[in-house]
Give the backbone structure.
Amino acid sequence: MTATKDSDTDGTRPTSAVPDLRYSDAEEQLRAVVRDLLADRSAWPAVLAGVDAGEADDAALWHTLAADLGCAGLLIDESRGGAGASYREAAVVAEETGRAAACVPYLTSAVMATTALLGAGDDELLGALAAGRLTAALAVGFASMPPAPGAGPGSWPVRIGPADDGDAPGVVRLSGTVTGVAGALAADVLLVPGDGVPLRLYAVDTTGAGVTRVPLVSLDATRPLADVTLDRAPGRPVASGADAARAVAAALTAGAGVLASELFGVAEQCLAMTISYVKERKQFARPVGSFQALKHRLADVWVAVTQARAAARYAAACLATGDPDTPVAVALAKAAAGDAAVLAAQECVQLHGGIGFTWEHPAHLLLKRAKSASMALGTPDRHRAALAALVDLPPPGG
């Protein structure tokens, strides 16, 4: 522990020790297992074939990752059938799914929906998620941050109506449309914030009456989006009031933080692919990587990727311990990793020359994943603005 001066007292106050951002042996072992699985089951030709066939969600791969490897239950405690791990381990898996541009709903189900249910304390759904029997998604727009939890009526698009005769106690009927929901097509259960005071969170069976999911054409075909329409669909309450608000807020914060690790994985893969290519590609009897202009560009990418790694690891560490600095860490990580991934992916396409622009090469998949993920759950600019407010930075010219 260290001590710093506290203006409210004449003594000192303890502050938490700086977390160790290095990967533990357990995290590296988890990475190796996940990487081997994705190399075997989600190699580039397989991903490209799935995208060509319009089958972005790889159900078989997700079942193996979720149930057989136990990645769906990383954040769930052992008493509920999970692994009892933390966001550090969850972030390692996200790095690998980003590197492979894997077509699995890991972020939306194992991180965001699971975090919301942990806040709600729904043991039944958590047990099913941990076992890999169910996949869930939080029914909020993925392209931008939804309204702040706890906001007044009109902030959420789904309205709450009275139950029908014969409905189970507590069940209500939900109506409304949520646009651009990630993970909705693969989900068995939707967690839907219902508009009203207080805020309520409902579980909705996607196979039930009144639920329609319309696939969207999105930039990143490896993470499909859908418009979700509820027409008096039955919803079971899982949290209400302050509990629901905290659950949704925690899910969005965790999603942005772990998405930063996914973006770092994309950036690291792009850099590695590009370095390997410029070492082999020759012009004028020399590897093109020996040209000074390319060295400078790759050095800029390396600096951005290294900074993104540090920021993403710190965000994961803060999420894991519930550190009060979590909002700052997540905003910083999402901004830094989003910019780094887009830069690395753009340079990957450019420095691969003509082959980098072809459909057969995986560079375009990484570029699309980088760009779409950088805009999801808040763009880098929005997170920088949030960061400025969190640390009391004055606006430009202020």
Notes: The chain has eleven helices and eleven strands. The chain has three domains: 25-134, 159-241, 246-390. Residues 1-15, 146-153 have pLDDT under 50 and may be disordered. The CA atoms of residues 314 and 329 lie 6 Å apart.
